[in-house]
Input
Amino acid sequence: MRTALIRVLPRILVSFVFLIAATTASAEQVRGGDLVVEMPWARASIGTSRPAAAYLTIKNEGLSADTLLGVKTDAAATPEVHKMEMRDGIANMGPSGPVEVPAQGIVTLAPGGMHVMLRNLNHPLKKGEYFSMTLIFEKEGQINIVVPIYSIGASGPDE
Ligand SMILES: [Cu+2]
Output
């Protein structure tokens, strides 16, 4: 009886680890305290010579504001949160600086607006793959997410 369990146990553990890996990869929502990071995604890139962008939504379910200070990722050497601004009728983008996530509020990073600029890609972003990203908040600290990569023409997390 005991030997049988010992023989089966490693197999159970292995399937458990795979289950956790699969769950993490497909997770559309990661919670850190009162903050919920939802539906992260990025478009596939053409090689590594041009920057790519990643998008996501941050919900604050708490009663006090927090601030997104920056991001880290293994996908790019210089990731940066960018905002879009209209200047003389032309859309310009640049570093957003710290981004406040108001109490009970939502901050959306989406095409045409704020985004995580992935400058100096470490490798091409390939459709169907994932990369990890860490969001750094003033109060909550670090929240780790997994970003799925969609097609080069994707316009949202639903493709
Ligand atoms: Cu940008």
Observations:
- The two ends are 51 Å apart (CA to CA).
- The helical segments are 2-26.
- The longest strand covers residues 76-87.
- The pocket of copper (II) ion is lined by residues 82, 93, 115, 117 (CB under 6 Å).
